[in-house]
Amino acid sequence: LYSQLLESALLLIAGLFAAVALAYPADSLLLNVLSRYFRGFSLDMRPDMGILLVTSGLCCLALLLFGVLPAWQATQVDCAATLKRASATIKGAREGSRRLLLCGQVSLTLVLVAGAIVFVSTFRRLLTEPLGFQRDGLLDAQLIPLPHAFADNAAVANYCRDLIDGIKALPGITAVSTSSFSPLVTQPYKEDIRRSDVPARVAIQAPGEFVSTGFFSAMRIPLLEGRDFSRNETPDFPRTAIVSRSLAIRLFPHGS
Description:
Structural class: mainly alpha
Number of strands: 2
Strand order of the largest sheet: 1-2
């Protein structure tokens, strides 16, 4: 009993100390990789004592379940009598259970390793995936208005217009715009789109965004054809939209 308990305790303590010792260089490596691709990325690397205490408590619980309990059960069994009654049956059952446990451990390890490989390869591919816009020199900020801060949509529009003019006056700013959602962190709504001259055609569902004038120049997305939005377009003007090249090809496959 004591030898098995001591062996389980040594394994548990060694694993706990190894996890804490490996956590620091692993966190530093992850932080260096992320800061290389995301400028200004910072993360508090100090250990959380609450999580560490909970983990230590779970380790002690594991010691009781998988160390003390099996050892105590082993002391309650008359090994000589049990072996005399069914030695071959017990041996075969134990061998089968050990093989089953070993196969399960190997299978779980392969699944974890395969998942880690897929995650790393997907992350590296996403780092080199073209975003459709130039991210260098681009600053993204989220505006969260106070409740009941604006009387109506016209007040919101006037505030955004004054804000854009104020930011444009800052040195080093080339373009400023607003959008309903942040690029890459977006939940665009779906809009049913069809040609007015072919109303019977099945509508195409396309994601939509609300943006202000200068959005494409700020994101450095080239306009292939047509014009940008204008500040002169008030709510009384005809509604305008800018579509992507892929949607334009689907709507007008044989013309501009």
